[in-house]
Amino acid sequence: PKDRAYTIRKIIDPNTKPSDLARPGHMPLLGAHADGLIGRNGHTEAVVELCRLAGLYPGGLLCELVSDSGEMMTAKELKALAKRFNIPLITIGMLAGFARSVLQKGQHRT
Fold first, then answer.
1. How many CB atoms neighbour CB 76 within 10 A?
2. Using CA atoms, how far apart are residues 92 and 37, in angstroms rounded to an integer?
3. DSSP labels for 21-56?
4. 40 and 20 share one domain
């Protein structure tokens, strides 16, 4: 767990050089489309877009929640979990719509 946390911190640090990390590593890396959710409506792009919109470095950690069956949670299961624990839930579509509205207002990504 500590080595994974270290790796995550290094991956999103813009000063990290390839030589700072061992390869092959123990964490799969994903690259987002350069245009974010405008270019591709995917989970990876949603993470990066959310960081950009928050004014943060455009890199983050993505994980999927697993249901009791061992499969990835469905939208229905995620909604139930969010309701149970009073967690706000947004969809990639909602985030993409917001990102488009920000760009249409002339605000630029960081």
1. 8
2. 8
3. S-SS-SS------TTGGGT--SHHHHHHHHHHHTTS
4. no
Q: Write the CA distances from 5 to 18, 26, 76, integer angstroms.
A: 17, 12, 30
Same domain, 72 and 41: yes
Statement to judge: residues 78 and 59 lie in one domain? yes
- pLDDT tens sequence across 37-82: 989 999 999 999 999 999 988 888 888 999 999 999 999 999 999 9
Residue 9 domain boundaries: 1-28
Q: Whole-model pTM?
A: 0.77
Res. 106 pLDDT band, cuts 50 70 90: confident
Asked if 22 and 35 sit in the same domain, the reply is no
CB-count burial class (<10 Å; 0-12, 13-18, 19+) for 89: exposed
